[in-house]
Amino acid sequence: MSKKFELTSEFIVNALGVKLFRIKALASFSDVTIGDLGGFVEKEDNFSTEAQTSGDAQTSGDAQTSGDAQTSGDARIYGDAWIYGNAQIYGDARISGDAQISGDAQISGDAQIYGNARIYGDARISGDARISGDAQISGDAQISGDAQIYGDAQIYGDAQISGDAQIYGDAQISGDAHLIWFSKVGSENGTLTVFKAEAGLKVTRGCFLGTDTEFLAAVDIKHGADSRIGKEYHLLIEVARSRLGG
After folding, report:
1. In degrees rounded to 5, what are phi and psi of residue 71?
2. pLDDT tens, N- to C-terminus, the chain (246 residues)
3. CA separation for the pair 220, 85 (Å, rounded)
4. What is the maximum alpha-carbon separation in the chain?
């Protein structure tokens, strides 16, 4: 197969001191016209013949963009990350580690995907969202805001997660009915997230991850059940149980 792009003499040096070269189209295909300038890559192995890169997007290390995938804006793809299918990475998004983005997934804003995370289907990740660990986001799921998804969490279906929600552990969330969160609560004005898991309701608050019963027991020990904060947490857990059927 004939080459569809070449490295030009125009280059930049990234934050790691690696020289990246802007690419130039050698043929017209898809939305690309011969002679068009694209984004920056470290070497030809970073990009396949059909993939597209534009703007100041950067691909380096052993990262690969293939298929009909597109990177644009100020996106950064590095490490061993793999972007393929019809995936689109744009804005200031960062994809690294062994993360894989595929299907029709779109990553934008200041979102960061790393670790062994997998994003596929029609999933949309935006804002300052962070997806890491072995987390999987698929279907029509939308993750935005400052949400953090990590561990072995799986988000799929029509689930929408935003704000300061934190989902991790073995959580499996497929719709809005499986999740609720409360912001600016407790002594630290943090976020309390409650979601359905295989063993029932799970709660995250700061570094805590456990069942709703375990969480309330920890609250009673630390704050006291009759304290203002204790009463607040008990009330919020009752709301969560009512909404999620716990």
Report:
1. -125, 140
2. 567 889 999 999 998 899 999 999 888 887 888 999 999 999 999 988 778 899 999 999 999 999 999 999 999 999 999 999 999 999 999 999 999 999 999 999 999 999 999 999 999 999 999 999 999 999 999 999 999 999 999 999 999 998 888 898 888 888 766 889 999 998 889 999 998 877 789 999 988 989 999 999 999 999 999 999 999 999 999 999 999 886
3. 50
4. 73
- Sole residue written with tokens 């644009």: 72
Q: pTM score, two decimals?
A: 0.84
| CA-closest candidate to residue 197, choices 168, 157, 236 | 168
DSSP per position, the chain = ---SEEEEEEEEE-TTS-EEEEEEESS-BTTB-TT-EEEEESSGGGB-SS-EE-TT-EE-TT-EE-TT-EE-TT-EE-TT-EE-TT-EE-TT-EE-TT-EE-TT-EE-TT-EE-TT-EE-TT-EE-TT-EE-TT-EE-TT-EE-TT-EE-TT-EE-TT-EE-TT-EE-TT-EE-SGGGEEEEEEETTTTEEEEEEEETTEEEEEETTEEEEHHHHHHHHHHHT-TTSHHHHHHHHHHHHHHHHHT-
Amino acid at 72: S
- Give, in order, the Cα–Cα distances in Å from 134 to each of 48, 54, 97, 173, 199: 26, 29, 11, 15, 20
Rounded (10°) angle between helices 212-222 and 228-244 = 170
CA distances from 24 to 43, 87, 190 (A): 13, 21, 48
Q: What distance, in Å, lies between the first and last C-alpha atoms of the chain?
A: 58
